[in-house]
Amino acid sequence: MNQRHHVIILGAGIAGVCCAREFVDRGFKVSLIESGPAAGVQGATAAGMGHIVVNDGDPEVLRLCLRGRELWRERLNEEETDQSYWRSGTLWMAEDDSQMEALKGALGRLQSAGVESELIEGERLFKVEPALARDLVGGLRIPHDGVVYAPKVTANLWNELEQVESYFHTAVVEIGDGWVQLANGSRLAGDAVIVATGISLLDHFTGAAGEWARQFPILPREGHLAITARGTRILGHHVVEAGYQKGAHQVSEEAVACAILPRPTDQLCLGSCRRPGRGGPVDAQLLQRIIDRCERFVPGVSSLPILRTWTGSRAATSDGKPLIGPMPGLKRTWLLGGFEGLGITQAPAAAELLCQRVLGEACILDPGAWDPARMRSAVVGRLHG
Ligand SMILES: Cc1cc2nc3c(=O)[nH]c(=O)nc-3n(C[C@H](O)[C@H](O)[C@H](O)COP(=O)(O)OP(=O)(O)OC[C@H]3O[C@@H](n4cnc5c(N)ncnc54)[C@H](O)[C@@H]3O)c2cc1C
Questions:
Q1: Which residue from 8, 10, 33, 45 has its CB within 8 A of the most atoms of ligand 1, so it is best to mutate?
Q2: Which of 36, 105, 108, 304 could form a disulfide with 228 if both were Cys (CB 3.0 to 4.6 A apart)?
């Protein structure tokens, strides 16, 4: 493809907007189609927590997160505002010795990948975060992790993009090889179509591509969050219980874990949970379980005034990793999604990688790990493994 070519991007969440930026920066003509009224106001981008976290669960995932974090830090100022990358750091908390051992393992993996991190044991934990429960045995601190307010950052990125032809309030109803059918009856064709529609990523394919999509559907995983009133930021780090990763990888059952994110607005965002399904009304009992879990790690947090509660839906794939690459069976249509709970962290790196693949440029990360065509062998392998 050369710069006379036309790229159509579907979805103006954080992934679609980061992707638009990659192509605009290279001088391409870009059209963006979004069913909502503006960028970053619908879907998971509007509902997420905004923790920019280097996740050590899998070496490829770690590399994608690390590159995402690096790009956010390059592109946003490091200040304490809603428009910026606020470097709060992550503190993983251990309740007992076995969790501390698990954190030591994570430390080893992070350090061998070059990620600055340290173990904090005994009394020093409470010097770092005085509000933590005194029976915790220690923690793992990752100082360069941070916080972005995804709706704002997405809107700002969008506003900086010039010459993008935008179609807001416009839903896509069918996607083919290099073309899309819109709900208003019109059809657009381009040299590349990038699908970044979050939990609807695979909803609009027909024919052989539609069959593939039905075989490997996107699995929505609901989360509940609450935000406290201003003046309640009793923590400096994003604190997460060590067992959180386990819940993040469970596909079928409900999982609740303590994850508390301090916001530059002097608030705390309290989470988190996962259960199958699209975000619906707030379930008061589930929310109470989340707040109780947070209280166990940060005594007093449950009595802070809550300003707002909401739900959102993460888009998970059957193997738990994002889809970044060509739609199987199609030549000019590409997928960018399935980020589960890491899409805000990973979006800039995933968009960069996809753009490099579409244009046949050298890729900064290994594209094979994310290629949608991996799904057959990955899922079959798991069934037999
Ligand atoms: C409760 C919760 C907490 C989270 N916390 C974090 C966190 O702390 N850190 C982190 O890194 N990630 C987090 N995430 C994950 C992160 O929010 C998502 O992975 C990320 O926002 C996905 O971005 P996206 O652009 O792929 O999808 P979305 O933000 O869902 O955007 C998709 C867009 O496509 C549009 N669209 C859909 N269908 C159509 C159609 N047919 N036609 C036109 N437009 C369409 C939608 O309106 C939407 O604007 C969290 C998610 C949830 C739900």
A1: 45
A2: 304
d(CA 347, CA 117): 23
CATH architecture of 6-46+151-218+319-384: 3-Layer(bba) Sandwich (3.50)
d(CA 374, CA 301): 43
- Please state the pTM of the whole predicted model: 0.96
- CB of 351 sitting under 6 A from ligand 1: no
Quickly list DSSP for 309-351.
EEEEEEEE-TTSS-EEEEPTT-SSEEEEE--GGGHHHHHHHHH
* Nearest residue by C-alpha to atom 4 in ligand 1: 48
261 Cα nearest atom in ligand 1: 8
Please name the amino acid found at residue 332.
R
Residues of CATH 3.50.50.60 domain(s) within the chain? Answer: 6-46+151-218+319-384
Confidence label for 128 from pLDDT (cuts 50, 70 and 90):
very high
Q: Please check whether residue 339 is in contact with residue 351, taking contact to mean a CB–CB distance below 8 angstroms.
A: no
Residue 379 pLDDT: 45
pLDDT tens digits, 176-201:
999 999 999 999 999 999 999 999 99
- Exposed e or buried b for every residue in 52-88, given b needs 16+ CB within 10 A? bbbbbbeeebbbbbbbbbebbeeebeeeeebebbbbb
Residue 245: per-residue pLDDT:
67
Give 160's DSSP letter. Answer: H
**Which pLDDT does position 82 carry in this prediction?**
87
What confidence score (pLDDT) does residue 244 get? 80
CA distances from 70 to 53, 67, 348 (A): 11, 5, 9
| Residue 230 Cα to ligand 1 middle (Å) | 26
33 lines ligand 1 (CB under 6 A): yes
Class level of CATH domain 90-143+220-314: alpha beta
CA of 6 to the centre of ligand 1 (A): 24
Which two tokens mark 223?
């989360």
> How do residues 350-364 score in pLDDT, each as one tens digit?
999 999 999 999 999
Diameter of the chain measured on Cα atoms: 65
